[in-house]
Amino acid sequence: MKLKALLSHLHIPATIEDDPVITGIASHSKKVKPGYLFFAISGVEADGHQYIQEAFENGAAAVIGEYQKISGKGLYFYAEDTKRLLSLAASYFYDEPYKKHKMTGITGTNGKTTTSFLLQHLLVSHGVSTALFGTVHHYINSNIVKSSHTTPDPVTLQHLLNESDDQAVVMEVSSHGLEQKRIEGITYDQAIFLNLTHDHLDYHGTMESYYLCKAKLFSYLKNKGTAIICSEGTYGKRLREELSRDNNLQVWTYGKRKSDHFYIEDVGKESFNLIHETLHVTVPLPLPGEYNALNTTAAIAAALDYGIPIKSSIEYLKTFEGIPGRFEELTLYNGTEVIIDYAHTPDGVLQVLEAASKKAGNRPLYHVFGFRGNRDLTKRQEMIGISLEYSTKTVLTVDDLNGVDRDQLVLETKEAIPKTSQMPIVIADRTEAIILALKEAPPNSVIIITGKGPEKYKESYHHPSDSDLATVELFQSQNKAALL
Ligand SMILES: CC(=O)N[C@H]1[C@@H](OP(=O)(O)OP(=O)(O)OC[C@H]2O[C@@H](n3ccc(=O)[nH]c3=O)[C@H](O)[C@@H]2O)O[C@H](CO)[C@@H](O)[C@@H]1O[C@H](C)C(=O)N[C@@H](C)C(=O)N[C@H](CCC(=O)O)C(=O)O
Ligand SMILES: Nc1ncnc2c1ncn2[C@@H]1O[C@H](COP(=O)(O)OP(=O)(O)OP(=O)(O)O)[C@@H](O)[C@H]1O
Question: What mean pLDDT is predicted for residues 360-384?
Fold first, then answer.
């Protein structure tokens, strides 16, 4: 692709004699190769304009930045909003690959991974080849691609969209992705709003700006595209009101009210009832909890928009195999049931503990979890409060340190404990904390470990294990051996 064509697509005026061939796009100076177009971006940690020289040294054919002028030599163009331009350029460079697929974007504080796995399962079961972008992994042309971000950076995203020969693309769209305009240059056929509750206030500042950021996903919908909105919660209702004024969209709501296009009732352990227009059906619950009945309804509604009848989706749900680290269950030799879950927000913890305590009934419920360093501190106290309310015993530990000293994180965690009579145990070593719960919980208890889900530990701990599941399995194998 020639530089002039790219600049003209981005509406950047340029009078240049040479028109070099652009061989790639980059926003990180160290990824620049000869012939690349480099975008200088002012970020949270660094300022890409400081790396322009390095980009030229690595062979950049040209640079686009937000400074009016730069010192030094090289083809430089001034423009506003390089984050947006980077995404538009990447989309153009890779031939606007969204056009090859039917595109679904899913946003919300919690449930993006769950809903995207469910929708992918329904589509694939119906014979629609489906790519997936998300936290656990990306999935392109039936191959798993490692994921470093829920919503990848624009160059990776557009490259993978171009690589994908899949008919459909189901994409988790994070608020960071939206704020950083990573999805600019994509038009969606359908977009799903799951919920909005307390998270990421370290980044967004207020719930209002967090909401406005999430709501932006719907501005990327095509004309007559479908908006699927969970109308539970104030923000879902607000979005429904705002979008229903837009005659260019098809707005479907789901929730627990008869006024919803898809409404649910009688959520049990195994199934729930779904009502859509004149259809009343019983749907198998693929994962426990009312929140998963809602996630499943979102996936069924999205599948219907793809032309998949609800009754077919119900059949397909019977073969859903679950998701790593989302209410993942295993039973110990002594009858205790262990649940590994990715809940890491107050609402996520509340929902999953409600489901776990229903499962536990009169049996003791132990809860092990910790906080990530350098992430929204304001949600911690609420999360501990919820844990203390639902669990027989709470064991607090650490999650990823993210550069924070472990003792410091433990101190911050202790400071977040609400002043209640029931004090949680605090154990700095995550493997020790899990093993303590496993040892202490009487036979036939329920133990829930939240926060990390399937992710590998980033820290090293006392016991030789690299994930919550591996720690439980280590304990299980040692104790089985002791019994023999
Ligand atoms: C806060 C945040 O989201 N930051 C993301 C953002 O970084 P940034 O724009 O702030 O970049 P920066 O590090 O300040 O650097 C500024 C610029 O200088 C450039 N640079 C920097 C160094 C250098 O040597 N040369 C160079 O050119 C950088 O490439 C960048 O363009 O853009 C980068 C490139 O796309 C991302 O890798 C980075 O993700 C960081 C690592 C991150 O942890 N992000 C998380 C919070 C995130 O995005 N999470 C969401 C899911 C959240 C959830 O729902 O749980 C996700 O979608 O994954
Ligand atoms: N609809 C929901 N409402 C509230 N909590 C939910 C919902 N769905 C899932 N959860 C809880 O949130 C946790 C994370 O779920 P999931 O991974 O599907 O969300 P996510 O939005 O993809 O999160 P992330 O982007 O951080 O990975 C689950 O393990 C569960 O505890």
Answer: 94
Rounded distance from Cα 348 to ligand 2 centre (Å): 6
Q: Whose CA is nearest to atom 13 of ligand 2?
A: 343
| Confidence tier at 484 by pLDDT (50, 70, 90) | very low
Distance CA 54, CA 57 (A): 5
- Between the alpha carbon of residue 71 and those of residues 35, 80, 270, 443, the distances in Å are 21, 18, 66, 70
Residue 146: alpha-carbon gap to chain centroid: 14
Whether 94 shows a pLDDT value over 70: the answer reads yes
Edge-to-edge strand order for the sheet containing 393-398? 328-331, 337-341, 446-450, 365-371, 393-398, 425-426
Q: Is the distance from the beta carbon of residue 196 to the nearest atom of ligand 2 less than 6 Å?
A: no
Q: Is 52 in the pocket of ligand 1 (CB under 6 A)?
A: no
Provide the 3-class DSSP secondary structure of residue 386: helix
Q: DSSP string covering 74-141, please?
A: S-EEE-S-HHHHHHHHHHHHTT-GGGGSEEEEEE-SS-HHHHHHHHHHHHHHTT--EEEESSS-EEET
Mean pLDDT of 432-442: 96
Kind and range of the H or E element at 170?
A: strand 168-172
For tokens 């160059």, what's the residue? 155
Residue 106 Cα to ligand 2 midpoint, Å, equals 12
Task: Map tokens 């064991």 to a residue.
Answer: 395
Backbone angles phi, psi at 362, to 5 degrees: -85, -5
Q: Whose CA is nearest to atom 11 of ligand 2?
A: 348
Mean pLDDT of all residues in 358-386: 94
Percentage of the residues of the chain whose pLDDT score is greater than 70: 99
Say yes or no: CB of residue 451 within 6 Å of ligand 1.
Answer: no
- The verdict on the CB of residue 181 being under 6 Å from ligand 1 is no
DSSP 297-324: HHHHHHHHHTT--HHHHHHHHTT---BT
pLDDT in tens, 390-417: 999 999 999 999 999 999 999 999 999 9
Is 105 marked as a binding-site residue?
no
Instruction: Report the mean per-residue pLDDT for the chain.
Output: 95
* pLDDT tens digit sequence for 37-58: 999 999 989 999 999 999 999 9
The neighbour count for residue 245, using CB atoms within 10 Å, is: 8
452 alpha-carbon distance from chain centroid: 13
DSSP 8-state code for residue 42:
B
- Whole-structure pTM value: 0.95
Residue 158 has pLDDT above 50, yes or no: yes
Q: Which two tokens stand for residue 307?
A: 């032309």
446 vs 102: CA distance, rounded Å: 42
